[in-house]
Structure formats: C-alpha cells, structure tokens
Amino acid sequence: MLDDFFIRALLGGIGVAAVAGPLGCFIVWRRLAYFGDTLSHSALLGVALALLLEVNISLAVFIISASVSLTLLLLQRMAPLSSDALLGLLSHSALAIGLIALAFMTWVRVDLMGFLFGDILAINRLDLLTIWIGGALVLIVLWRIWHPFFASTVSLEISRAEGLKPERSEMIFMILMSLVIAISMKIVGVLLITALLIIPAATARKYSTSPEQMAVLAGLTGLASVVIGLFGSLEWDTPSGPSIVVAALVLFILSIIPGPRLKSKLRIKSDSKDPLKSEVKT
Prior knowledge:
The protein is about 75% helix and about 5% strand. The chain is mainly alpha-helical.
C-alpha cells in the first residue's frame, strides 16, 4: 500500500501536468522556451523575498514572475535590444540576485536543492489545494483566451485586423505562466519547470491532428511522465523532480523512433479566411 506522502505527490504532480500541458503547447508554437526559463529563474528571487518578508512562497514567486513578465513587455518598448537579449538579461539577473539574497540571509536555513530541483514528496494538503485551485483557474482563463491567443499565434496581423487585441491576450498568458511556475515549483524545482512545460507538448505534437487535441495529449503525456517518474524514483531511489523530467524525455524519444505507429505533424499556418485553421500533414 502506498504511503500518504506518495499519494499526495501523485495528486500534486497530476494537477501540475494537467495545466502545464496546454500552456506548453503555446510555448512550443510560439517558440517561447527562453521566456519560460526566464520566469522559472526569477522564481528563486521570489523565494528569497518570501523568506525575507515571511510571506507565502508561492504568492511571492507569482508576484516576482508576473513582475518580470511586465518588465519584459516594458523593456521591449523602451530598450533597443532584441527579445532574446532582454530575456537573457532578466533571466540571469533575477537568478543571481536571488542567490545573493539567499546567501545574505544567514539566519534562515534554505533547502536550495529542493527549490532548484523540487521536492514533490514534501507536498502537504495546503500545497495540493493551491495546485488544484490555481490549476483550475489557469485552465478556465486559458479556455477564455484560447481563440484570440491562438489567432495571434497563427497571424498577428490578422488577429489585430479582426480586433482580437493580441497584446492583451499575451499579457494574460504571461500572468498564467507566472501562476503555473508558482504552483509547480515544489514539483520539479525552478531549473526543471520549463522541461515539464516543453517536453510533453513536443511529444504530443507528433500525434496531434488539431491544436485542441495537442493540448489534451500534452496534458496526458505530462500525467504519464509524473506517474512513471515517481514510481521510478520510488523503485531506484532517485530524485523525484529530475525523475519526472527523465520520464518525459523517454516518452519523447519513443515518440520519434521510426515504427508502424501513426504519426501526425501539426503545423500552424495562417489562412486568409480563417486564422484558426491548422494544416496537418501525415
């Protein structure tokens, strides 16, 4: 019989995977992997702020990640630098400031490895409540902005012409990303969050014939990664967070091995009549 802490870890991991999958699809479609890294690295600064002010860690991480997202939007309009350069600046600066702040807080014992690589087995009931309520909120909001945000992913010009306000959808998406990072930090840690967002989505893309199907398959792939990774961690006594990411990687590798299975490649393409159409090549 499984222990309570292991069941809580499973439930927490499943909750995060269900949310990370659909969000990860947009990261893959829009090539935002570096943006995900930037927000995850800034989470460590949120941890330092939470310990300093003695507030909830998830709340502080969300505030810092959202602030970094809004700062990026502001700098894109003001600074004569490319988005990649700005992301690199914000990512490494936030990570360095967070590490220095934690080093100065000598009166606080910090499990740095737990924050960096996650400690899913330490999830309690409050964490579960935060993950599931926060995850449900993210999915509801994502469902509401799915049409305009996907339209801007297909064609920014067409979405503007149709009055879908892509800038607003992009800002909401950034806030959703910040919330997901805040609730998933305990699962895989700040250094591996982006992997949980990208790898299941990349795996699902091989078998999807529509954007909605890819979102569902990405969530299911993430769920399978959590289950396989946790049981593998239990069997071989390996770190739980990295084990989940390795399980996701194994599923991705299996998906690209040539074989008699059905493979479909989803490619987003603009269409003059319907900007939400996608072309599927099998």
